[in-house]
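Morning. Coffee machine broken again, so started the prediction first thing and wrote up yesterday's gels while waiting. Chain of 238 residues, entered below exactly as on the submission form.
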Amino acid sequence: MAFRGFPPEMAPFFRELKKNNNRDWFQERKELFETKVRAPMLDFVESLNAWFAAEAPEFVTEPAKAVYRIYRDTRFSKDKTPYKDHIAAIFPHRTLGKHEGGGFYVGITDTGVGVAGGVYGPTPEGILTLRNHFASHHAEFAVLASAKGLSKLVGSLQGGQLARMPKGFPADHPAGDLLRRKQWYWYAEMQDNLEKLTASAKLTTEVTKRYAAMLPAVRWMNAPLVAGARKASKRVLL
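Came back before lunch.
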C-alpha cells in the first residue's frame, strides 16, 4: 500500500509504552503494534526505497530487513526494559555491513522523527581507511560538509572522538577534528507540528530532503570503504 502517514494510534501507543514497558502490557497490545505501527512503518520504508531507487540505488533495502525489531537487546545493559520506545529503519550500503559503512536511518516515536546519515559503527580497519581518506582529501570533504542547506537541515557532523590525535598522524594535521573521530554522521530530529507531519505522506518528503543533503558526503565516505571491500573480496576468491 502507498504510504499516507501513520495512523493516530501510533503516538499514544509509544506514550503508553514508555509508562508500561513490560511484557504483559505489550502482549495485550501486540496486534495494535503490528497493525498501527509496524505495518505503516513497512509502507514508509517502501516510500523511502522509491526515492533511493531513483537517487541512490545502492541504499535500497528490503523493508523487512530495514525495520529494526521492537525488542531491546538487554544482555549488556543495566536497563532491562524489554521494548524500544520508537520504531526505526536503516538503509545501509548494499556492499557494506549494516553499520560499518555510510548509510541512512530514520526513527519515529511520539516526541519526534530522528533522521541520520553517515558512518556510525565502522570496524577498526574501516576507521583507519576513513582516517587515511580524510588525511589526504580533507579539502574535498570540507566542501561537501559545508554544502548549502546541510547544516540547516541536519546540523553539524557528530560522532565519538579521541582526546588525542590517533597514532600515525601528526598532531598539527589540518584535518585533526576529522582524524580524531571514530564515527562520522549527522543526526537531526524533527519535532515541529509532529502529529500533522507523521500523519501525512509529507513525512517522506521531509526525510528524503535530509537524505539528499547528506548523500554526497555519505557517498564520499563510502568510496574508500567500498573499494576496500572489493579488494578483500577478490583476495578471498583468489
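The longest helix spans residues 202-237. Going to sketch it on the whiteboard this afternoon.
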